[in-house]
Amino acid sequence: MSPSSAPLLRVRGLARRFGRRTVFEQVSFDLARGEIVSLVGPSGCGKSTLLRAIAGLHGHAEGSVLLEQQLQRGPSDRIGVIFQEPRLLPWLSVADNIAFAAGPRQGHDPRVDTLLAEVGLSGVRDALPKQLSGGMAQRVALARGLFAEPDLLLLDEPFSAVDAITRSRLQRVLLALAHAHGTTILLVTHDLDEALHLSDRVLLLSPPGDDLPGRIAREIHVDAPRPRNLRDPAMDALRDTLLDGIASSPI
Ligand SMILES: Nc1ncnc2c1ncn2[C@@H]1O[C@H](COP(=O)(O)OP(=O)(O)OP(=O)(O)O)[C@@H](O)[C@H]1O
Ligand SMILES: [Mg+2]
């Protein structure tokens, strides 16, 4: 395979065990450069654990994670992570939070203003996190996640704590940012409509049963053009496929 056709991310045989309990095993999939892929599955099936394993956080998982054919052995600034809550440092300004990867007070970095404009927050560069709404704080977290210009951004239910209107706005911001920066996205979400709205592909992680570890049980391709119409009958069929997959899971 030539380097240009190789996937950006290649996950092979990934497994995570806590003591004698296996959360998931034999997880293998690729992400092409620029692809947006969602990971769905019932609560507790191991989505966050899988995301952390790909990010190289919290110890060693079995299997391999290759980024452009390079084996990852721990956290990398080429892989950014955004969590459900913004996790901003309360004593630093918005600008200093965004540029934190460059050092503690680097908010004057010119890339900060570009990112603030992209997430629609130019007016709050000197504000402290406590002065922001939840949706604004999550937009700052998005800007911080992109500051290091990662090839891959992993997002763990990033919009679940905001209202429906803000959520829809943040989804649009994420799509625009991914497009503008050429960032590949792996997004964990509970919301099948969010997955169908945003993704090129959706992976369904099945939960571990009594003797059965979690695995990628289903993969669907979402070929509909963007902007997507979730009322499109083709979307209903994809939603049904995902729901069937969840219903036939062992839990
Ligand atoms: N550090 C740990 N030690 C022991 N068990 C853990 C640890 N981290 C996660 N687990 C277990 O792994 C399983 C999967 O947890 P995880 O948080 O990945 O699920 P999830 O799919 O993200 O759930 P949710 O949708 O509720 O966020 C759970 O049973 C959890 O208790
Ligand atoms: Mg989780």
TrEMBL record:
Keywords: ATP-binding, Cell inner membrane, Cell membrane, Membrane, Nucleotide-binding, Plasmid, Transport. Coiled coil: none annotated. GO terms for molecular function: ATP binding; ATP hydrolysis activity. It holds the Pfam family ABC_tran. Residues 9-232 form the ABC transporter domain. InterPro entries: AAA+_ATPase, ABC_transporter-like_ATP-bd, ABC_transporter-like_CS, ABC_transporter_ATP-bind, P-loop_NTPase. Gene3D superfamilies: P-loop containing nucleotide triphosphate hydrolases. Belongs to the ABC transporter superfamily. This is Aliphatic sulfonates import ATP-binding protein SsuB 1. It comes from Paraburkholderia largidicola.
